[in-house]
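User: My collaborator sent over this chain with a note saying "see what the structure looks like." That's all I know about it. Can you take a look?
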Amino acid sequence: MLQVLLPLVNVPMINYTLAWLESAGVEEVFVFCCAHSRQVIDYLEASEWMSQPNFTVSTIESRKAISAGDALRFIYERNVIHGDFVLISGDTVSNMSLNEALKEHKDRRKKDNNAIMTMVIQRSKPSPITHQSRLGTDELFLAIDPETMQLLYYEDKDDSRKGTISIDKTLIADNPTFLMHNDKQDCYIDICSPEVLSLFSDNFDYQHLRKHFVKGLLVDDIMGYKIFTYEIHSSYAARIDNFRSYDTISKDIIQRWTYPFVPDVKFFGNSAVKLDRQGMYRASEVGLSRSAKCGPFTVIGCGTNIGTNTVISDSVIGEGCTIGSNVSIEGSYVWNNVVIEDGCKLKHAIVCDGVMLRSGAVLNPGVVLSFNVVIGQKFVVPAYSMVSLLEQPTNQDSDEELEYADNNSDSDVASDEVDERYSAEVPEKDKCTAYEVGESGAGYIWQVCDGVHEEDWRHSVAPIPDEKLIELMQKVDLDTEDNLPSSGELKPELNSNMSDDDDDDIEEVQDDTSLFQKEVEATFLRAVHENVAQSHIVLEVNALRLSFNMTFLDCASALFYSMIKLALDTPHNSSVDLRTSAAALIRKWKKLLKGYLTSIDEEIEVILKFEEMCLESKELAPSFTQLLHLMYDEDIVQEESILNWAAEKENADEKDKEFVKQAEQFLQWLKEAPEEDDDDD
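Assistant: Without extra context I'll predict from the sequence alone. Here is the result:
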């Protein structure tokens, strides 16, 4: 569980939670503090949150609470909650409105007193390869009554990787109709009735909210209490409980999915920064060398200085940092007051406050450096290592019991006693003792990715390694082959007499297609901005193809759409600039696109997709012929495909022949061009 005061895009996590609650109309907030309680309380007491009109923030402290169940029992004993309440963790980021969810919950309660909880969920397809969501959480299986939205089954620890789940036969017997989902994400936002607190008070074996309380109620047929779900569609809600979710949600904030809670909009607890072109955020008083390059989706904090020839991409740099010359920072999170000397390289790492990297140091993917660590000159920190000033304890104390849900978490949170040890053991930067991190370094390596820690990649800020994806992909292919009929092909049953329910099926397919398009576009944009290898992108797109049950043509259309849309979204002054940008993207990613075009018909469909986009964009339309010619020159589409596309338009309406007419000279040239002769004579 990540501490709620740790920076998320240079703002303490708890500020996002409180800002959302205030905007949602919540008037009173109780913050329960256990681990790091003194830090949290001191921060809140010194913040603006304690002086806001019509918004009261109170803290409740108990260092004896070791689980969510203990915390709720303590709150029940304090008798501070007397009606319905919203239960969340302090690391929740959302912009959803609570009004409709609260209304549904209260209306349901009027009809059924046993409806004591409403869980907020949203759609999120897990990867069929890793069986994880984009937040690094396990694949979740829910059974929901489609009429009432009652939750009937909840499981995130199962045999899904073996292709099976276990359901009690009484669930089927008692509920003739229910939908089984594995495409939902638990937002960990619960609307609760007071009975929830009393149930925890009466059942001391309830520790975890999901593993014990939710699952306990679902199998309890004596009390008759019920849990319902509320699905959000256009809003954002997610919880940070591992490093992968920290990375994912940070990128979502930077890419403005959490609006209005974004870096350039002032809200309580943050300092607004300026949004430059291509999504780069820069605060005031930043010292940036002319030769330094800061790429898109990068945040630079106030008072930070960046040296010559330094390259920063897809990273967040905190306040008061000093970054030397010839430094490379990619996909990393550098917190406040960090010193990075010349020639250092950071790739998909987290660097906490006060860290120093001496010249030439290298942080491999997945590294986490704790507070005030010093990495020695030219020292290479192994991938997925965690480095601390404290030696790794033999029997590590853990606050995993404090998790809001029983999720896997790589994040280490020490007690207040450890905080004091940190302060006492911080070495002077000029008199460092060499521990395990090189000459003039200070720190102990806690974890190294070897056989013991082979699962570290699942919850890291680093992208999943290619070799791991390939290994998992091969397992998926084997499982798929085992489930196919002897012919090796699954054919849908065709029925000309469609029922009324078929309309819903069609809408669901359309929703899947739209969602698939968005997922491919997000994958492609990450590849562009983070310089991801094309082989890695192929694996990710193939995973999406399997997850959404799409074809190679669907992949090609989605990729081509993403390329052209990126060109349209890139700032340009004229149609010539737009054409130049689109041409550069087509040339760079032609191999990726061509890999999904296996037939003439598929190439024609891509041309039709291009034609459709040109019809929707007046500034793109004049470039149709030139870009089509480029696709021919780059062997993305063949001559036969282009001529067949034109032939299909012969009997079309005049308005549908706009681009055939525009490409008339090019088409004539193709028809008259001499065919290549394989003979030398």
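A starting point for your reply to your collaborator: The chain has three domains: 3-159+168-243, 270-388, 512-672.
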